[in-house]
Amino acid sequence: MSTVIATAETKAGKAPKAQASDRAVGENRLGLKLVAPAVILMLIVTAYPMLQALYLSLFQYRLTNSDEREFIGLNNYITALSDSLFWQDLLNTLIIMVVTVAVELVIGFAFAMVMHRIIFARGIMRTSILIPYGIITVVSAFAWQFAFSLNNGFVNGWLPFVGGDFNWFGGHWSAMFAIMASEIWKTTPFMSLLLLAGLSQVSEDMLEAAKVDGATWWQRLWKVILPNMRAAIMVAVLFRALDAFRIFDNIFVMTKGAEGTESSSFLTYRQVIEQFQLGMGSALSVLLFLMVLILAFGIVKLFKVDLAQARGEG
Amino acid sequence: MKRSSGVGIWVGFVAILVWCLLPVVWILSLSLKPVSETAAGSPQFLPKTWTMQNYKDILADGDFTRALINSFGISLIATLLSVIFATLAAYAIARLDFKGKRLVLSIALAIAMFPVVALVGPLFDLWRTVHLFNTWPGLIIPYMSFTLPLAIWTLSAFFREIPWELEQAAQVDGASPWQAFRKVIVPLAAPGVFTAAILTFFFAWNEFVLAISLTSTTASRTVPAQLSFFVGPDPFNPPFSQLATASVVVTIPVIIIVLLFQRKIVAGLTSGAVKG
């Protein structure tokens, strides 16, 4: 009798386990099936063209005479990297990235503080802050181009320290300023919303405690608020920096790269679409991709951003 | 940080409103200036004479209305398809235990940060060979690829918050699996799906690099691309009023969506990026 019980027990012990593993296999399979379409779609348009670019970058290849495709090894890369225009454009891109993200961080944080503490008109606030976020970048670029325009812009009239006949798009730095104004205007709201979400995670008790202990407003900001929303700040910086590095629309509309305001993205575009230099354009594409990769890696390592942790995945 | 309505908050409130709305009011004002006024140069903020003529002109411009139709069609189709695929993927990521979950999220993240311009050359070449150049699908396919990361990210954050036990509870109470899904899970998941759809639509509506590179005529050119080609004969003196008017017209859908769904958009933007 005891043996019977024993076998029954082992059976009972085994059955759920087998079932669980069956279930796990099934779940695994279903999971893969469900993500497959999305993953395939994402890779079709990115991985394949990127490999194609890697291959094409080794050729002298103009679309206008595609029969004369000639293998030239790494010559496209050497030409690009030894051209001062490449470095000038990279420098522009980096300047735009650093300046816009820094300004957006400060203004965005101020906006987030206001939105966090305001008790009236929260709906109006939310609606207004979403308008620049939702507006088409090209429209933002036009609005600012016209605002800074010599004949039709209001900026010269409103700024007391600028002459009425100052041509913003006539010089390198003033044109860069106009481009950055459009970029900052459009994306600060997004930054402020990300920071607002971080701000709402800062514990009120901790702030009260710091206040009771006699910490000044400034000390509370630097010792309590900012360290506690570090994850949110880092995610915002990472997203915005990589986005700013790809700047294209504003430059295309506002200056078309005139006055040395071209960005790396614009240079790549110009080689491919305007000059049909698919070989050189591909080499620039690969370089651009590598730069974004290095940048992302650098920011993640430098600031120790843990995206999984920031998402609460641990 | 107590909530308050002190002077500082009032100043901040006004500053934010001015920041967000000034350029919008500016472009609106410009659109109401007669062409003759902007051609002669009118640096003052408001029009001297007000006119609706620009709106009549722009809506009678076949190229522009065609671009509007392209924009709506391409953005809506891309949004619909992208959200369907993203919902499947996000459901798997939020609920199922499978190998490669992290890999999928990493791929999505990598693609969200991908420099779109780097694809222009190879895609241009590829699309011409497979005859997708200057067609709707030619833009819809890449728009789906680039919006999927955002949609998957947002949706999986939403789905993780859903109390899925309710589905079983409903079945215990006698509902069929389909009823349980339709009556319990769908209403809970719908707001998240809807939010992802809005964010996806904004992306497609805004996209510019691919729109100018993969199209060549009004057969598939979207509004941002059309606007940038709408410069007129003298590049140094663009038709300010018409451009401003066209800008206002394409901004109207954005403002309507924002007015109706501001709460959902904010929730979507922050849930995906900051905390799951």
Which outline of chain B best applies? globular
Give the tally of β-strands of chain B: 0
**Largest protein interface?**
A-B, 117 and 101 residues
Into which percentage range does the β-strand content of chain A fall? under 5%
Largest sheet of chain A: 2 strands, antiparallel
Instruction: Give the end-to-end Cα distance of chain A, rounded to a whole number of Å.
Output: 50 Å
| Helix and strand run of chain A | HEEHHHHHHHHHHHHH
Radius of gyration of chain B: 23 Å
Structural class estimated from helices and strands of chain A: mainly alpha
Explained architecture:
The complex is a heterodimer of chains A (314) and B (276). Helix content of chain A is 75%, strand content 1%. Residues 1-17 of chain A have low confidence and may be disordered. Chain A is globular and about 75 Å long. Chain A is mainly α and 314 residues long. Chain A has 14 helices and two strands, in the order αββααααααααααααα. Chain A has a single domain, classed as MetI-like (MetI-like fold). Helix content of chain B is 75%, strand content 0%. Chain B has twelve helices and no strands. Chain B has helices spanning 7-31, 35-40, 53-60, 62-95, 101-112, 117-129, 136-161, 165-172, 177-206, 209-213, 223-228, 240-273. In chain B, helix 3 (53-60) packs across helix 12 (240-273), helix 4 runs parallel beside helix 7 (136-161) and helix 7 (136-161) packs across helix 9 (177-206). Chain B starts with 6 loop residues before the first helix and ends with a helix. The chains are: A mainly alpha (314), B mainly alpha (276). The interface between A and B is large, with 117 and 101 residues.
